[in-house]
Design goal:
Layout: H1 3-9, H2 12-41, H3 49-77, H4 80-98, H5 104-118, H6 121-132, H7 135-150, H8 152-162, H9 165-183, H10 190-196, H11 212-223, H12 226-236, H13 239-245, H14 254-279, H15 283-302, H16 308-321, H17 325-335, H18 338-354, H19 356-374, H20 380-407
Helix pairs in contact: 2-3, 2-5, 2-6, 2-7, 2-8, 2-9, 2-14, 3-4, 3-5, 3-18, 4-5, 4-6, 4-9, 6-7, 6-17, 6-18, 7-14, 7-17, 8-14, 11-17, 11-18, 11-20, 12-15, 12-20, 14-15, 14-16, 15-16, 15-20, 17-18, 19-20
């Protein structure tokens, strides 16, 4: 790689987008990390921590779903930078407010608002960087964003161990406000400014549904990422409950599980991004990583090793398997023209995050059904353990099958020129 390429790759838009995603991931994953201590301090009994945690996670993800639409459309109508400024301001203030909650109801409202804010960061950053860098550097740029950004989960875990959960929220909000200062010197995408000068419809979400081929591509972009948030939203977020069901010898910290899985995710994103550049294909690499995800789901649920150390190893490997997140968002950005690119690149990852709602509801339905099935055969505790394990397996296999079907619906986009519009 030449010096000129390195200067472009480590330009201000890439650095700021990476730091923005770093803060985004810190705030997004902080709830998963402090779920138990925060709910306990709000008076939620031990027996309700799982159910209340699921409900709050669903509310947060619904906020991401709503925000994905708002920020995506705004990014195509008003520009990429307006989303980067507006979204980070909203989620920073919302996360500071999270530190002041005294009831679960207040917590749920603020997680919804924070979810809306968090929805804009990644899609706008990837869109801006994709339109700024030349095609042969695009994959490297989005890989840097994801790899740096995912380290936000590591910082969130360390902060949660040092400070109370309220202070952890204050720090996340403060980091976001500091990032606004760095945003001032970033310029708007030249490709977007060219499109803005034309008399053409921009940010029309319904345009994604007006053409059969376009709709097929849009849905394909969404569902190839389904295993990613199944793993994060169910297996990792509720790792203490899974560890108990799997008879792990020792206490599992949700924060450590998130940290190790995101270290794996960062390593996976780095590997998948560079591999896609080497083999000159997005789809081949995504296929490989979906297969790895299937393998590591089975390892997580059925490993014969019961030590806490090995459990964290399985969290790391699971994270590595789903480490095609940056590639997944890059594919979404490359599939569509400039007048719809931000709408798609922002809505797609948040629609996937939003699928945590039906996935957790399906998981709960299976847990209840399997518990009722096993109860006459074994003890109540064993029945619940079987239900958690095999319910999660069923949901996971469904996401893998759907992802492979969706992969067939999208185009290979490696090296595509992004200076075009949807008509």
């Amino acid at each position: 790689m030449q010096n000129s390429d390195l200067r472009k790759l480590f330009s201000l838009p890439v650095i700021v987008a990476a730091l923005g995603y770093f803060v985004d991931i810190y705030d997004l994953l902080l709830f998963s990390i402090v779920r138990r201590p925060s709910l306990i301090s709000l008076g939620v009994p031990e027996s309700e921590l799982f159910n209340q945690g699921e409900r709050l996670l669903q509310i947060q993800m619904f906020g991401l779903l709503v925000g994905g639409l708002i920020w995506g459309i705004m990014g195509d109508k008003r520009g990429r930078l307006s989303v980067l400024f507006g979204s980070i301001l909203l989620y920073s203030l919302a996360n500071i407010a999270n530190g002041f909650v005294t009831t679960v109801e207040q917590y749920s409202i603020l997680r919804f608002i924070a979810g809306i804010g968090l929805a804009g960061e990644l899609g706008a950053g990837v869109t801006l960087v994709s339109e700024t860098l030349p095609p042969h550097l695009r994959g490297y740029g989005t890989t840097i964003i994801a790899t740096v950004g995912l380290m936000g989960a590591v910082l969130a875990n360390f902060i949660s161990k040092i400070f109370d959960w309220q202070v952890a929220y204050f720090i996340g909000g403060g980091l976001g406000l500091l990032l606004l200062l760095a945003r001032v010197s970033v310029f708007e995408s030249g490709i977007f400014l060219q499109t803005k000068a034309k008399e053409i419809s921009r940010g029309n979400f319904f345009q994604l549904f007006s053409d059969k081929v376009r709709f097929k591509r849009f849905m394909g972009c969404i569902f190839i990422g389904l295993p990613i948030w199944y793993a994060i939203g169910i297996l990792i977020t509720f790792s203490p409950e899974f560890a108990k069901a799997l008879s792990i010898n020792g206490v599992i910290s949700a924060g450590d599980a998130v940290m190790f899985s995101y270290l794996g995710l960062a390593a996976g994103d780095l590997s998948s991004g560079f591999l896609s550049q080497k083999v000159k294909s997005r789809k081949k690499v995504v296929t490989l990583f979906i297969l790895l995800t299937l393998l590591f789901i089975l390892l997580y649920l059925f490993s014969p090793f019961k030590s806490t150390d090995f459990f964290y190893v399985t969290c790391f490997t699971l994270g590595f398997g789903i480490g095609y997140w940056a590639l997944f968002v890059t594919i979404a950005a490359e599939q569509f023209g400039t007048n719809l690119r931000s709408t798609v690149a922002t809505s797609v990852p948040n629609f996937i995050r939003g699928t945590v709602i039906p996935l957790t509801l399906f998981f709960k339905f299976l847990r209840d059904a399997l518990t009722a099935h096993y109860t006459p055969l074994v003890t109540e505790t064993e029945a619940k353990n079987y239900a958690i394990i095999y319910g999660a397996l069923t949901v996971g296999l469904c996401t893998i099958v759907i992802a492979f079907i969706a992969l067939r619906a999208i185009d290979e986009t490696y090296g595509r020129d992004l200076n075009f519009e949807e008509t």
